[in-house]
Amino acid sequence: MTKSIVISGPPAVGKTTVAKGLASEFNLKYLSGGDVLKELAREQGFEVDGDDWWDTEDGMKFLSQRETNSEFDKKVDEKLIGLFNQGGMVITSYTLPWLVDNGIKIWLEGSHHSSSERMQNRDNMSSEEAYEVTKERYDKNKALYKKLYKFDFGEDVSVFDKIINTDDLNADQVIEISKETVRTLL
To answer: Residue 129 in contact with residue 139, Cβ under 8 Å?
Structure first.
């Protein structure tokens, strides 16, 4: 397959799970836009260990730095655009769907309550803490991307080929819907 796929959506909606499922099914390379951004954070002296690093105090501190210095995001997005355009990739990214014109774009949506429940279970945190972290990440990223690229993250979903509401679905169901979408759009 020569097309690339991008999975986007709010924090803790299941992007990584779906992307890895699609990569496995279609023999594509998986890449997390967040992991590329974490590499830049590492270069800035942050210790970025663990999948839940974004939810830590250091992760939030880096997010705050990004609000005043768009260089980090622009570097990541340039790299992701290049890799996406090569084809054969499944990439999770908040911004990429608005920055590329080709490939397959899937938006995973879900209530803030569902996302915070996923984060609570995944990262072993209290429901209150998970709710606050997902809300802060969503709000800050939304403001950052509006300032940087002028699109309304989470509101303007017109660029997507498929929108999947994950609230009443388990991971396997979301992956199956995503697989069918990709098969249809190949």
So the answer is: no
